[in-house]
Amino acid sequence: MKVELENLTKRWGDVVGADSINLEIQDGEFVAFLGPSGCGKTTTLLMVAGIYKPTEGFIRFDERIVNQMAPKDRNVGMVFQSYALYPHMTVFQNIGYPLKLKKVPKEEMQKRVQRVADMMGIGHLLDRKPAQLSGGQQQRVALGRALVKEPQLLLFDEPLSNLDARLRLSMRSEIKRLQMELGITSIYVTHDQVEAMTMADRIAVMKDGRLQAYAPPEELYDQPRTLFVAGFVGNPPMNFMEVEVDRENGDYHARREGFDVVVPPDRGEKAAGRGKVILGIRPEDVTLADEGVSGEIYVVEPLGRDDLIDVRIGDAHVHILADPTLRLKIGDNVKLKFNTHKVQFFDPATEDSLLWT
Amino acid sequence: MAQTTVTSEALVDREPPSRWAQFRATLGAWGFMAPAGVLVLVFFFIPVIILFVVSMTDLSSSNFSEPWTFIGLENYARLFRDKFFPKILTNTFRYVILTLSFFNVGLALVLALLTTHIERRAGFFFRMMWLLPRITPSVVYILMWRRIAHQPPFGIINQLLSPFGVEPRYWLFERPWLFVILVNGFVGASFGMILFSSAIEAIPRDYITAAKVDGASTLQIIRDITIPMIRWPLLFVTTYQTLSLLTSFEYILLLTEGGPGLFTTEVWALTAYKRALKTYFGHNQWGYGAAWGFILVFIGIVLAFVYLRVFRFNELVQEPKIDVL
Hints:
The structure holds two protein chains of two kinds. Chain A has helices spanning about 40-50, 90-100, 105-120, 135-145, 165-180, 195-200, 215-220, 225-230, 265-270, and strands at about 5-10, 15-25, 30-35, 55-60, 65, 75-80, 155, 185-190, 200-205, 210-215, 240-250, 250-255, 260-265, 275-280, 285-290, 295-300, 305-315, 315-320, 335-340, 345. In chain A, the strands form four sheets. A six-stranded mixed beta sheet of chain A has the order 6-7-8-3-9-10, sandwiched between helices. In chain A, strands 13-12-11-14-20 form a five-stranded antiparallel beta sheet. Chain A has a five-stranded antiparallel beta sheet with strand order 15-19-16-17-18, with no helix packed on it. Chain A is an alpha+beta fold. Chain A is built from nine helices and 20 strands. By secondary structure, chain B is mostly helical. Chain B starts with a helix and ends in a 9-residue tail after the last helix. Chain B has a domain at about 85-265 and about 295-315: MetI-like (MetI-like fold), CATH 1.10.3720.
């Protein structure tokens, strides 16, 4: 099912939950709503589910406006961070509850619940109460309950946030696989950009109730349209520093105190002659080299596979990833090479990208 | 007592503590229990024992200064032989069951559900209004009701209904039971209402959202989610109010004095009170009244145990999450 949000707005008095959200989700697409807490992603999700009524704008399911449609008529399945399994019902009753409400005959209900439970690998737990299950099992039951009525749209509200880190990884790939196999259009709300990047076909980045960007993960990563997106997506986050870009002898130089690199003309020309602009570069695009910009190591954070190193260049800080076997220490002097084909430039006033519009 | 044993056992489990440590742990447990224990002892156990002793005497205002005598269970025998005993017994059941089911639990639940499903501030205001009768002095409250159901040409009901061609009546005398139950129920409902609405508001929103998405209507949510999730307060209010209704009589005393006529609305607790302290000729039969009272206490204790068993309170009350230190 195709989902379309047009100027979707939710206000409670002066408080704005979501501010004219426009986006379109293709049939079978997996879309993540990504943003910090309070950015309006859950508000938008609850409007799609029919729990909140939009203040303005429209929600369309396959061209049909569903603003006034009750949640029960939307044929939507939802999975919650808290799992929201009914504690007084068994696993069977939990999964079967949507079918019971639809007055599905007992025998068919039995069959469908068993099938979904087996698919989720919890077929042997049907007599248990939710309190007797582990977090991962509970989340599978919640998924089963969402899937049992064969919904046309699946809504996930931070479903993995309560699981431990390991389980989160395996559930992540499992949900992605399941969604692909079933081909159900899905919206996945998360504040974890890794989750959004790894799972979604497209990511809607939100901040303060507004849609900041809506693009496939690679595009979001390589061509961030705003400073916020650039800083929010990617881990460790992008480095930013104020520079001035000037053209000299046909080359574009990005300069600040103790820092001077030549940037490619296609990027440089868009930032040149504007006074101070914000240069952004991801940690993996800065490497240690024999020559280049010199700096002093300020902090070393071992991450295992890499060391995350904070290098001070003048009064700017740049984070880079380095090989731990180099045994770098605080106070060491190093030279940095910038992969200038990957630099980003932002307008400091509007915080919009100068490269991608 | 049980708590104390658990404490010392848990200590033994970990490592053998010194006798002094064990003694101190026991003392600590007793120390924490002491204030409540003393209250129960002084205001419940001792009075009940006194009550039982008095119930086996012929102590009354006519022989107070003379030596009174132990007469064994004669007061109890006399009580069961009383011509009006069956009437009083059925009255008591009728009073407790009707008030409890229609008002103290039934209306309380309806009020709680209504006030939690409307706008929050409106619900809060409505609940506050409903508490007014409870904080009104009993006498004032009952006077208001008596005015409402007063005999013609007075009575607010008569004033309101006469334009519709309803003949004025003395409503309180024609429908005494209706008013006895209404008067108690209006006050009684607020207790359950407060407990139920706070329990309903404590249900995490996700459950309700999940049920809505699952396709439940408001009534189905109330039936399948809300009520099962407030099971504990429901049971608590039922048991607590049964016991308190059994022993309450002041509204009936003020409203009908057990009448009109002979024993029409007289309940057990009112009988005990009248026999012991307020007979018409000033002849207070303390011993006989104590027998009525003691049976009530006995029924209360038995019911309390039955409730504890049947509703398995132990399972409902969660174990404390704090480990023994």
